[in-house]
Amino acid sequence: MNRHGSLVGKICAALALIVLAEILIDDGNGAVLGGFAFAWITALFLTRRAIWNDRSARLALVACVGLAVVLLDDPSVLGWVLFWAAVSLAALLPRHGFDDALAWARRLGWHAMSAVVAPLKDVARLSMVRQRRGPSSGGIRAIGAVVALPLVGGVVFLALFASANPLIGQAFSQIVLPDLWAVTWRTLFGLCVLVTIWASLRPGPPTTRASRFDDCSISMAFEPGVGTLILSLVTFNVIFAVENALDIVFLWSGAGLPAGVTMADYAHRGAYSLIVTALLAAVFVLLALRPCSAAAASPLVRRLVTVWIVQNLLLVASSALRTLDYVDAYGMTVLRLSALAWMGLVATGLALIGWRLLAGKSASWLINANALAAVTVLAGASVVDLGATAAAWNVRTTLARGKAGPPLDLCYMARLGSSSLVSLAMLEQHAKQPDLRDRLAYLRWESQTETADGQADWRRWTLRNARRLATVREMFGTNAPRLRSAPDGRNCDGLILLPPKVEVRSAPPSAPAPQTPAPTTSAPKPLTPGAQQ
Question: Is the pTM of this model over 0.85?
Fold first, then answer.
């Protein structure tokens, strides 16, 4: 009876969430996503009592609440993915305790794939239970047999009366059927919500089977000999030492570069390839120095690996400095800001690998520590608007350094949308040149209008954009600025486009006069008598 009541409660919770999603989530992705996330948390807490008694599951549920607040403030794809992972952990942890992040990454992957067939499996199980209990007089067939005749007969008689009575026919003609495409789309959307919700309310038992990552569980296919490993590490250390020495001479000390090589080119070309190099080095260390391998017991190998890890950390630091130099020359973007965060994450991973080697930590410790660092970075990226951060950095640098700083890309600022609204307003407030102020006023007003239109739709309304609009309206009010006339439109950076040049076609030139005079014909001279002879 408890199981039946629990199943009925989960079905009701799933149906309520589907209806709520159909109402809240339409075209926009505003704060309503945060409201739906809170409803999902409530349904999970009420229908899964096992969460109440599991400490890890309760911690995951607290993380869900924090991520729901993030979605309420400024929803994003990254925030939603992190929220789904936290909800899935809260649903699965009561069945299996947390061991290591790699095992749980596999479980979450299987949980996502099995969610598609989870409702079908439960329907099949209910059908098998009903078949074992025998036929029931209250089944679907019995209900169908009762309502079939009045339903079909009623439809036939209504059709006949509609054709016979113009009042009934007119009433039926005023009925507007819903759009078939809209019905199909909303049905598919509801099924997607059902698949997502039901997997957390009734997770499959195979999802949480034991799959613990062990220190010796890595494949033994890659196991070079100690001599090969020592020779490889010596070679790698020498090559890395050359690269690090060049970076120290030209990048860190500021020495002059050879002719034909600029600092911007030197900084930009190596920033990302050096990170790939560091990642390959980390993978090599993990595979070559497994705790169960013979190389891990060699003191010389451990020393060489320690030196190589230190060189890799210097390499990552040089990559970060290259990126910062490039930002100093060309400005900040979301990609460059993300690259700096990624470099910090790589450096943290390398440091953790070195600490594991020196302190003798387990593979599970290394995986969990790296997973914690990655989740911290991703959670920070979901909370902080990277576009607004990049725009604010560019504006602060421009106001502080003026023409001595990097060029301000107003087209890029405009592409950031509402993220750059406050920064554009701040720059407009400090602009002294009339032409620049006009361009900034145009870009700011375009962004302000677009943000206000989005806020007018309650499904797209967000707390963060409400704060941005309030800040800008406090600075400039709600009236449109007086802009210069631009009959031919403006460029992406606010510059007024010049009218197109009209090509004037002149009459074709007349035939040129001949350069040499035409031969003239003269009268024939009379012949003399002597000539006739």
Answer: no
